[in-house]
Each structure stands twice: as structure tokens, then as C-alpha cells.
């Protein structure tokens, strides 16, 4: 009886070590992707399980349960930040989680030309595929009110600058009056190029 119990415990230990070794190996192997790059927008409040399923739906060829368990057992699931993320070939499960914990979002750039009118700025930003404006249905007066300047003419002041936003997130990527944000980029001769989260 004791011998059988010892053998059973030994077998469990062997299986545990084997499972741990397999998990460690998987974490360092590149994830298979359905396309050269895969993107996912993580909204605030999204659960780790939904994030894992989102990556699979976006094109990561891995069992969603496996990704979820990795996020959960890593102890960093609650540290995942909302944002727009992009991964490419060679990305491992370990690197994927680290990217989301750091908040290492994908970036896009919208170039705005000095001298353009407020309407031209809005039209250019509306054409940016990486942005999802929540002001598209607003008129100029409503936009200015949303920016905290009700009653102010959108043409007042110098060149507007875009508000950074993440792809798929409904944060206002419209225009705002000049702020410290992107000020260095807006001073470039002839244009105002501002890095923007996708």
C-alpha cells in the first residue's frame, strides 16, 4: 500500500515537472498569426478572458483558454492596460502580455497643414482610418462645447492639434485648441504632425 502511494506521488511529481517544462517552453515560442500583423483594441473594463478571446478572434492562432490561463496565472492580468495593440511575427505569449501590461500601444501619425481651417482639420482627421472619432455627428459649435470652449469660434487661435486616441476607442480625435500636447510637433515649419495612438 505504501509502495503504491509512493509510486503515485512520484508519478504526480513527474507530471507536474513535465507540465511546468511544457508551459515554460510554450511561453517562449512565437505565436502563430493569421496575418503578418494582428491588432486588438482593449476597452477599459475588458476581462482577461475577453482579451484572450479577442486576440484569437483577431488572428492569433492559439487556444483562447490557454491564453487566458497564462494571463491569470501570471499574476498580471489586472495590470493589463486598455489601448490599441499590434503584434507581428515572433511575438511570444510572454511578450504579448508584457506589451499589454506596459501599455505599449500602436501609434499612427496624422499630418495637419498650418493655415487650414477648422473644417479642413476635421475633414482630414475623419479620413484617418486609424482613428474612430466620436464627434463625427457634431457640428462645429458642439465640438467646441465638448472641448470646454462653448461659444468660442473654432477658428480662434492658432493651428489646432489632434487629441491622441487609440484605434477603436471613442475618445475625441477631433481637434482642440493649442495645448502643450504635441506642441513640439506642431512647431515644425509648414505642418503640424502629431503622433496619435491607433
Can you characterise this structure?
With 198 residues, the protein is of the alpha+beta class. It has 7 helices and 6 strands, in the order αβααβαβααββαβ. The strands form 3 sheets. It has a two-stranded antiparallel ribbon. It has a two-stranded antiparallel ribbon with strand order 3-6. A two-stranded antiparallel sheet has the order 4-5. The longest helix has 26 residues. The protein starts with a helix and ends with a strand. 27% of the residues are buried. The C terminus is likely disordered.
Mean pLDDT: 75
The rough form would be described as elongated
Number of helices: 7
Note the run of SSEs as H and E.
HEHHEHEHHEEHE
Q: Order of strands across the widest beta sheet?
A: 1-2
Strand content: 5-15%
Task: Describe the largest sheet.
Answer: 2 strands, antiparallel
List keywords for this structure.
198 residues, alpha+beta, two-stranded antiparallel ribbon, 7 helices, 39% helix, 13% strand, disordered C terminus
